[in-house]
């Protein structure tokens, strides 16, 4: 078990993905870590998360409950602050780097804030490992489809984050740096499904950008699966991409509305938005292979390529425009959210 006895640090651990990662780590499916540290700058979210585990009845999930008591600790800090990162990293063997500014419009209005978190945060992490005698064996950076052929600030900063982590393998060869990249997580904060469900709860209108717009869809657990696969088998500088379906946003709205008398309004593209998501570009497809049920983009730096690129997995870009599913398949995919009842949907 690859994380058995390891000290795991999760930056951005109070976010939607971070919380899902923590929950899965506590099950022991990757081995029982020696410790799990939730690192974030949000005191309120840490407090709520701590109480959630303290109040969890043992009968709910004995493994998670017991492990959370023994393994889980919380640290207030900011990836923008070098000394804050240094203190956390000194006590880590494995780092899952999920801290980010990820809302596309927010990053457009506050671009330098995105630079400080998404770029300087990654650089601080790399510097701490490079300049200190740390025991960090592995870093997995969490990226986004928007880093592929970026047109918005969020994507541009995430693209540079990827390159910073890939290049770090050359300067810190004792540490393995790899990335994961994926699109819209169905239940994450600010994503389209929770937004639509909240609008439906309030009686509408449901705000749709464009008739043509498509988005990749994966669950939080699939996102964690991608991270765990990269932890197990990722080589230095590689980027793991899940094979996932996509759908037209207008079809997502129709499935969630489910025949209710809810108005729809078309509002056009928001600042920095793409019409279609791209997870692997046409340039990257020439160094993309398949491994463990995922696409794996080999490092852009040839010095880091350990795997042969002879059996290429793609002949063109991997875009949400090309793998969109129909309404019936989408209804099955979103059934857990619809059947749970609108009042219980994630907001």
List keywords for this structure.
347 residues, alpha/beta, Rossmann fold, nine-stranded mixed sheet, two-stranded parallel sheet, 15 strands, 18% strand, disordered C terminus
Describe, in plain words, how this protein is organized in 3D.
Residues 341-347 have low confidence and may be disordered. Strands 3-2-1-4-5-6-9-14-13 form a nine-stranded mixed β-sheet, with helices on both faces. The chain has a two-stranded parallel sheet with strand order 7-11. It has eleven helices and 15 strands. The chain has a domain at 7-182 and 219-243 and 279-316: Rossmann fold (3-Layer(aba) Sandwich), CATH 3.40.50. It has helices at residues 16-26, 43-54, 62-71, 82-89, 104-109, 111-131, 153-171, 192-201, 220-233, 249-257, 327-339, and strands at residues 7-11, 35-40, 72-76, 94-97, 138-144, 176-182, 206-208, 214-216, 239-242, 246-248, 264-266, 278-280, 288-291, 294-297, 318-319. Helix 4 packs across helix 6. With 347 residues, the chain is of the alpha/beta class. The protein is globular and about 60 Å long.
